[in-house]
Protein: alpha-L-fucosidase
Amino acid sequence: MATRGRAVALTVALATGPLLLVPAEGATAAPPAAAAAAPGPGTNYATDDPFTSERAAWFRDDRFGMFIHFGAYSNLEGEYKNPDGSVCRNAEWIMRECRIPKDEYEKQAATFNPQDFDAKAIVAAAKSAGQKYIVLTSKHHDGYAMWPTKQNSWNLRDHSSFDKNRDIIAELKQAAEAEGIKLGLYYSIWDWHDPDFTSSSFPKYKERMYGQLKELIDNYDPALMWFDGEWDADRPTNPWTSRDGEELQTYLHDLNPDLVINNRVGKRRVTDGDYGTPEQEIPQGSGEGQLWESCMTINNNWGYVYDDNGWKSGAQLTRNLLHTSSRNGNYLLNIGPDKRGRVPAPSTAALKEMGDWLRSSGQSAAVYKAGFPGVVSQPNWGVVSQSGNDLYASVYQWPGAGKPLHLTANTGFTVNGASVLGSDQKVTVTKAGDGYDITPAGDATNPTATVIKLSITPAAPTAEGNGTGLKAEIFDNDQLTGSPKVTRTDPTINYAWRFGGSPAENIPTEHFGTRWTGTIEPRYSEKYQFTTVSDDTVRVWIDGKLIIENMTPHDGAVDKGAIELEAGKKYSIKVEHTEQTGEAFMKLLWSSPNTSQQIVPKSQLSPN
Ligand code: FHN
Structure:
């Protein structure tokens, strides 16, 4: 992150010229926005490793959140009657997909009155599901703000039939906080309603957008910002760029350094924000180079549609949650309240079914603070997650009497004990082939997933190293020629220079390169996967072997290479990165059966 900007008068240096926050006509003056730290040579926006940082610990541990799509579109409940009597159907995209004239849409929004919006009931539904955080749409693509923004009058306070003394985001914040549930806010960059959301007057739109975001952060203190609508689009044209994303992340982290931000703040890349956002799918992988969260509808639509009864079963939703947890991912499951603010009963029923499973027999241990089980491969009879020295095998296909479940081991470990959560049946574990055979003596405890807990003793790690980092030779050219301009020790290789930054103040933001050298000391004897997130080129040698090479200048790219290493040995390591033009990134992560993915820690790196 840029060196912390002081909250001073409000000029933010933007690619599109200085940003002076002035209110739109008709709105009262917005409070000044904090200044974003002016980027420049020497700026590194990566201030921590989301895989290990305290800042993102709650996000990694909580695993399960509630998404809420609620806005002016909800007032139509999925259907718009055209003047000719024909009917057009859609949910939160109804204004655009049904080509509703702006004045018509505004007219319908003026009747919006979610008088039955009950924050406590919504939080109770989240709690009954076991959801640990909530993300509410504060402003969707239709530009309608669900809080009393001062940036314009297109909002639930000034343009509705709702009680003008109520603030549903404040109500939700208070209700969530009372139950220990974190509140996140969704905000769409793409705006179909704001007249300045065009390429020619985009700076004016950004003035209001930055003003609104400051209101949200100042007034509701969200733990997370969920951006959306970052993609290139027309009707209206979306001019949002990755440079805009860089500036916005800086601005937000100057307002709140602890904020967790998704990758749609930029252009939905592995280099944007803290985590990736696969949507309506449960990825097979475990996310390389970035944390991730899969968001999904509970029926077929994000916003409320009166006749959408395509409800997913509690069992399927629970298995989706188990799958994401077993791959170090989070699951953000959506509800869409109706025009009165009520949560459809089938939603709460499915959510409760999930919570009942989690609360039963301590089965939630397979989800909360659990993650990718590097020591074993995922089986075909269910999914396995790991939490500390416990493996949680969630079995979907229970074996026939006396038949084993086979688990392939990726490294050596011993099994000290095995039990079925919620049952006192005997579980026999025997070494077999490339892993273990697990044979339960009794029946499954439930049709969704029966959990077998295996307590293991993994290989003992060597003592943590006392490394100080790698020798860095930094060149003011992208050929790594001549003498390095800067020679120093870098504790880790965790750099997001983006457009505005560079490795040092005397290194330009373009055409530079770095060579890191030294030794790396693994703590386990096993195969290590090294992952780089780089822009423009990268090469990595370990023990003299070239294990990663991507020399074609590229935007943020993930490259991987693996090598068997022996605990306690120090291996030579050399990493070369070059930046030509545009954005620049260089991160070096590792993982192994016993090491969760992380930026290679300083303790295991030495400059000589
Ligand atoms: O266009 C939106 C859509 O309406 C919904 O909000 C989803 C939820 O992640 N996001 C966008 C589509 O990717």
User: Anything to note?
Assistant: Confidence is low (pLDDT under 50) at residues 1-35. Residues 382-458 form a domain with the Immunoglobulin-like fold (CATH 2.60.40).
